[in-house]
Amino acid sequence: MCVYRKQVEVIKTILGEHMNIEVNTVDQFQGRDKSVIVWSLVWTQDSGTRCELLRDQRRINVGLTRAKHKLILVGCAESMRAINIMSRVVDGVKVVKL
Fold first, then answer.
1. Model's pTM, two decimal places?
2. Rg (CA), the chain
3. Which run of H or of E encompasses 5?
4. What DSSP element (H or E) covers 36?
5. Superfamily of domain 5-91
6. Rounded to an integer, what distance in angstroms lies between the CA atom of residue 95 and that of residue 86?
7. pLDDT in tens, 31-78
């Protein structure tokens, strides 16, 4: 699951058509769930935005509640802490530094 459509396109290209993995935006997952969700919370600083989509509490709620069994968040915890609502999310999860 991604925040932006462009991320969806890039990840689909990387995975290839033969992978049986659904890749969509948060909005496209509204009203549906999956056993395991990997949520890409990555954005670029040079995109000209301050990741406005991650400031929307409803969108965050959808993202956090789509997984039935396991939710894996991928992103920079330090960058996410700069967004108030995401700071609370980071504080509530186990952070694994790779």
1. 0.81
2. 13
3. helix 5-15
4. strand 34-40
5. P-loop containing nucleotide triphosphate hydrolases (3.40.50.300)
6. 13
7. 999 999 999 988 766 554 557 778 888 988 999 999 999 999 998 888
